[in-house]
Amino acid sequence: MAEIMKMSILRYRPETDEKPVWQSYDVPYNHETSILDALGYIKDELDPTLSYRWSCRMAICGSCGMMVNGQPKLGCKAFLRDYAGGELKLEALANFPIERDLVVDMSDFIAKLESIKPYIITQEPRSLDDGCTTQTPKQMEQYKQFSMCINCGLCYAACPQYGLDNKFTGPAALALIHRYNNDTRDQGKAERMKFINEEAGVWGCTFVGNCSVVCPKGVDPAAAIQLGKVESAKDYVIQMFKPGE
Amino acid sequence: MSKRKPYTREMKADWWRKDSFFTMYIIREGSSLVIALYCFMLIAGLFSLTQGQSSFETWLGFISHPITIVFQVLTLVWTLYHSYTWFQLAPKAANLWMGEKRVPDSWIVNAMYAALAGCSALGLIILFL
Amino acid sequence: MSRSHEPIFWGLFGAGGMVAALILPIFIVITGLLYPLGIIPAELLAYDRIFAFASSWWGALILLVVICFPLWLSLHRLYHCLHDFKIHAGVRTQTVFYGIAYTATIASIVLVLVL
């Protein structure tokens, strides 16, 4: 515990603060200290009023997303050793309203995830007697990486289009549409195309590409959205020959 | 009574200057500025071509003017940056498979560079025909 | 929920992006470096040669592809850049931006046909 890191955190206490203010802490760290560990140290030893979200400490619950020196990161997956010799500035996830300190209001993001029908839709109900549905490795490969999303919201914090206009459906929700539309067990594509075809659907994306850079789970939302644009364009041409729809 | 008072941080118009990734994005999009001007320059050439030889030679003089050369060098560099970004992102917009395996991204990117080389060579061949 | 008409402009943008990335560079090299700096014989861009090229159906086609598609790329991107710079553009602005690309396309086609 020889090293000391200066950590500045953007504090916001709604009952007293008009706007967020920076506050600094000196935190001892070693090779294993994650940012989440450092926040725990601050909370336990220096300042119990600091608020932040966390749960699993192993990059699967998606709770501890925050801006680390301006980049969206999971606190549990970023380590102080990688910022040695410098300063750490922590801020609540960008593009979301700050609820308190490092806690953001994600209700818009959650509403979007729910709205796009992120579950397998079948036309005919299946019974247990039907047995399991088989899938080839290739069929599974079409959607597997997109199913790794943990809904942490880092891609929304990384997306300037969502920041500029939060009507945009956004990376994770559009990637999830792609995930279900390309699952051979699913038959809900027609229902979900409505969300893709909108101005606020895939067409709100200008392919900045930062969502795929920041994803802590290796999901490539930018790819899902570009393939969604191809699908939407095909759908657009098809509907031109189907008057009345 | 709720003590909730969510604070919304405003995104300023210069957001793209704060982060190099976003700056490069705006530079990528900015290539369209010189590309458009260059296309208008070609349309002017096409127009001069319809007006006869002396008119076309005036246009040839225009594209040989030092300022126009500087503009075109800038356009070339910026357009090649567009090419670079376009090739980098191309695999994301393609879902290509070879049998049971996805075509590696590097193959698609390399194919794009090969196409650029091919188009350039073809352009020179047509010029010398 | 209403369907966006963006697929039309996105299609033209995509074609333009491809043309600008693959074909435009050699055009700029020729008109911006090889010819003005005298690296290639000036006769290669002589009036008669270029006239013959632009009057042939395939030459005209190459010119139209190289001139028009990148304009759709450019005006599509510039229009979306307005939003990136927090300039709120309405239907009128959109009409002006795509109208420029449209007018330039029609003008180019007319010029090629006149030759």
Automatic annotation (TrEMBL), chain A:
Residues 140-169 form the 4Fe-4S ferredoxin-type domain. Its cofactor is [4Fe-4S] cluster; [3Fe-4S] cluster; [2Fe-2S] cluster. One of its GO terms (molecular function) is succinate dehydrogenase (quinone) activity. Keywords: 2Fe-2S, 3Fe-4S, 4Fe-4S, Cell inner membrane, Cell membrane, Electron transport, Iron, Iron-sulfur, Membrane, Metal-binding, Oxidoreductase, Transport, Tricarboxylic acid cycle, Ubiquinone. This is Fumarate reductase iron-sulfur subunit. PANTHER family: SUCCINATE DEHYDROGENASE [UBIQUINONE] IRON-SULFUR SUBUNIT, MITOCHONDRIAL (PTHR11921:SF29), SUCCINATE DEHYDROGENASE IRON-SULFUR PROTEIN (PTHR11921). It comes from Alginatibacterium sediminis. GO terms for cellular component: plasma membrane. Binds 1 [4Fe-4S] cluster. Binds 1 [3Fe-4S] cluster. GO terms for biological process: respiratory electron transport chain; tricarboxylic acid cycle. Pathway: Carbohydrate metabolism; tricarboxylic acid cycle; fumarate from succinate (bacterial route): step 1/1.
Automatic annotation (TrEMBL), chain B:
It holds the Pfam family Fumarate_red_C. GO terms for cellular component: membrane. The keyword Membrane applies. It comes from the Bacteria. Keywords: Cell membrane, Membrane, Transmembrane, Transmembrane helix. The chain crosses the membrane at residues 21-47, 67-87, 107-128. The keyword Cell cycle does not apply. InterPro entries: Fumarate_red_C (IPR003510), SQR/QFR_C/D (IPR034804). Coiled coil: none annotated. Gene3D superfamilies: Fumarate reductase/succinate dehydrogenase, transmembrane subunit (1.20.1300.10). This is Fumarate reductase subunit C. It comes from Alginatibacterium sediminis.
UniProtKB/TrEMBL annotation, chain C:
GO terms for cellular component: fumarate reductase complex; plasma membrane. GO terms for molecular function: succinate dehydrogenase activity. Keywords: Cell membrane, Membrane, Transmembrane, Transmembrane helix. Anchors the catalytic components of the fumarate reductase complex to the cell membrane, binds quinones. Belongs to the FrdD family. Part of an enzyme complex containing four subunits: a flavoprotein (FrdA), an iron-sulfur protein (FrdB), and two hydrophobic anchor proteins (FrdC and FrdD). This is Fumarate reductase subunit D. It comes from Alginatibacterium sediminis. The lineage of its organism: Bacteria, Pseudomonadati, Pseudomonadota, Gammaproteobacteria, Alteromonadales. The gene is frdD.
